[in-house]
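debug: dumping io for the single-chain case to check the tokenizer round-trip. Nothing else runs in this session.
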Amino acid sequence: MSVPTHTDTTAPDGTPLSTGMPETATVRTPGAAAPERKTFWSQMAQAFAMFRNGKSIAGLIILGIFVLVAIFAPLIAPYGPTQKDRSALRQPPSFEHWLGTTHMGEDVLSQIIFGTRGVVVVGFLSAIIATLIAITIGVIAGYVRGWKSESLSALTNVFLVIPGIPLIIIVASQFENPPLIVIAAVLGLTGWAWGARVLRAQTMSLRNRDFIQAARANGEPLRRIITIEMLPNLMALIASSFVGTVTAAILGLTTLAFIGVIPVSNLNWGTILFWAQQNGAFPRLWWWYVPAGLCIAIIGVALSLINFGIDEYVNPRLRSAGERARAMKKKGLNVNDPVTAVRAPASAAPDDTNTNTTNSKR
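debug: decoded output
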């Protein structure tokens, strides 16, 4: 910070002195530093601040556990997914089989662990495909003008009304044993339209901002304006779209497996529910279908927590409310209390309080 100072340039008798300095000099404070220039990585770090709240952290921890289970499934599972124990058919949970066995003596816990792989692979692969398409089409459609923007918007509207599950059924019927990659690709190709529409609307708002206009006036190329200037400001919407696509892909996969569209050789949580229903496990053999249903619910809760955390970061009202609630908890105040607690001033003496109480009684 710089402050103007006036120097004394008069002699004791009142005659002016020539000091070679202007009458008003500028002195720079030693503690003031030049403004730090924002880089791409600093903007990206600021953009990922949405994952620093409690909801996002809790959701990421739960989701990370499922990812680790999928990676290290052969090391965690006590048995093979199709290994049979003929001496323990339809047995309830025990020390040998923690989640019981199926009608063929297969360990349910091992099937749950190995089935996590298919769920995680399809969920993340389809979300990556859908997010890349949504970013490409949505950002370009929001930045350009004229017939190009209208054409991309019309393409987005067409894919919005294409039903995903019937299309997957048609595609799966063309294969004798469709791999999970094909199913993930179809889910990704049919799930990008909503994210692209949201990104287009936000990009249309950003393209008229001052920093975008300045970059365009400086002759910056289109790819740099999009990657350096726009994408860091769109990371919250991109992350929210990614999480929503993962949720939709997991629910789509388990639904297709449960109704028998996906071959039973592709083990996942929906396949476990399919075999349980086909062999009359409902409702007596609860250990066969309840764990798979709980896993679907838990991973859905984890993804919802991440989405809620992103929404709390993006929405200024939710963010200010969360910060106010955390500040009240630190002070020992109850957030849900309808009456705000008022502390007595420290200067008030006990004798004054007693005197006022006595006078009021009188």
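debug: round-trip ok. The first strand starts at residue 2 and ends at 6.
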